[in-house]
Amino acid sequence: MSDTAADPATAGPASSDHRFQVDLRGVIELLSEHLYSGPRVVVRELLQNGVDALTARTAKDEDFKLSDGRVTLELLPARTTEDGTNHPPTLSVRDNGVGLTEPEVHEFLAKIGRSAKRGDIQEDTFIGRFGIGLLAGFLVAEEIVAITRSVEPDARPVEWRGRADGTYTVRTLNADLAPGTQVFLRAREDRLEHFEPETVRERAASYGSLLPFPVTFKHGRSGPDGGEEPLNEVPPWEQFPTDSPADREGLLEWAEAALGKKFLDAFPVTSDAGKVRGVALVRPESTVRSRTGDHRVYLKRMLLSEKADGLLPDWAFFVTCVLNADGLHPTASREELRDDAELAEARDELGMSLRRTLLRWAAKDRDRLHRLIDVHYRAVKRLAVEDEEFRKLAADWLPFETTAGRLRLEEIRKRSDDRLRFASTMDQFRQLAPVASAQGMVVVNACYTDEQELLETLPDVLPVTTEKVTAADLSEDFTELEDDAWDAASTLLNVASDALTPLDCTPDVRRFEPKTLPALYAIGEEASFLRDMERSKEQANELWGGLLNEMQKARPQVEGPRLCLNWSHPLIRNLAATAATPDDRGGAVARGTVRTAVELLYVQSLMLGHYPLGEAEFELFGDSLLGLIAAAVDGRGVGRADGAGKESDDG
Ligand SMILES: Nc1ncnc2c1ncn2[C@@H]1O[C@H](COP(=O)(O)OP(=O)(O)OP(=O)(O)O)[C@@H](O)[C@H]1O
């Protein structure tokens, strides 16, 4: 036995060649379940073939223009012929396009995956290209019949009859027909709902109403005397081509009627790349950033999708577009745009088109930009980060959350003399907010996406400086105590130091605003990081704990957290007085109570600053609270500066 694998090129005598066989029913199931969104697409595929046939005719027949084209959909009701045969309802789609010769019928209608729309032809000439669209007809029909007559001179009409079991017949007809094709779908018994007049009409109008030639619908009752009902509409970008107030109003009314929604604003957009023309509608509500678009896209004026994605740059998530693209490509399902180089180029250009409009508003139509910013400031901020010119023009109107409430940048600059202070995390912002606002200092909350990046790029376009601040930075500016106050506070500081050293925290006594805040836990960014790590270690297993230890050691020495006691607060002064109780008047007990009070202040300021508490801190909280309650019940209480505390000591 050979120990080498058989070489397919040399193995055995040559076998005879066979052709792959296609199980049509299997292919149809594949299409219906995995490619198409449902039988709705049948009308679209037939219409599309009509559009392509008309385009092909314009290339072959120089006297024929696309606007000479015509597609008619007709619904023939079920009927019984004289010989007693029942005919199911039938949908016919007729065009006066290029038609097919008999050899072409064999080549293109009967070969799955064969399309006349490939080869040397420029890719965006036709909508179809895969050679499977017609098969969609079998999603609703048992039999598809095409009667076609080519524009080729002397071509004879041909009838093709294809069945879902994979068989077909072809015959030439003697009739004298004009060039074009009429396709008939004979309803499948279990798909009759797709042959209801209103259903067909709605689908035909939805896919084909913007086509640049007459598209009509006909059925027993349509039109005044059974005539054809036109389905065409003028596209909104042709009805309202400019950004004038009148066109804007018209466009907003059109959008409300067509999309069932009141939009905030509307304006035209264009891109040479992808040959795009359309309108942008500004959403009435603020939206979160997401890639999922809901753009209504037409390709060669046929509806492709109402939920197309990837058409606009990320920052433009505040608009919905309705547009037509003659130079973009569909995916095989024909329900999305292919993510290719043309789409990328068109996306950039549409972004530029939007940006130009916003720049124009910034220069000449400020009310419009204001209205847009009020709702969509997040999106506009993203654009401001990316685009220096826009940033320069619009930055002053952008709102920010600050310690003084929501303010426009213009106001923040005025209140802070162009010195823009910001906190970079929500926790930092919360911690410093009471102190900053009590001191009349405006600090911006830059914890949201884009905010910090935007602030840091403002000095490029405006005469401002930016500075990241933390509660620890603010506490540096707290007022130092005068000598006599310092003396009065010294025992309190010693007691506080004893209480806080085991917690890696240093006490300090200063005067600061707000007077109502007895203590502030102040921690810089680095120390805050280490504190978080400490908390994580408590929850981590041994392996992670060890790793975190190493990381902690690797960080440079940083200044630790401080508990700033506020000398302006009466409680702190009372605690200082109590701590200073002479030993012969119960000083030791008093200092024990003060220590408990400091521990409680420590935990309270942690909680006020939204710092998560560690195990030791929780324990401390429980113990000191109980200690204080016990002291109160004993009648000792925490001393008061006026001596009441001392009296209770005696008592
Ligand atoms: N109305 C029509 N007029 C003329 N030719 C037609 C018509 N409908 C179909 N054909 C011919 O049949 C071929 C196959 O059509 P089909 O719809 O299956 O695929 P396609 O349009 O080429 O590509 P896709 O699968 O992307 O739609 C077409 O390429 C075209 O040559």
From TrEMBL:
Belongs to the heat shock protein 90 family. Gene3D superfamilies: 3.30.230.80, Histidine kinase-like ATPase, C-terminal domain (3.30.565.10). Keywords: ATP-binding, Chaperone, Nucleotide-binding. The gene is htpG_2. This is Chaperone protein HtpG. The lineage of its organism: Bacteria, Pseudomonadati, Planctomycetota, Planctomycetia, Planctomycetales. Signal peptide: none annotated. It comes from the Bacteria. It holds the Pfam family HATPase_c_3.
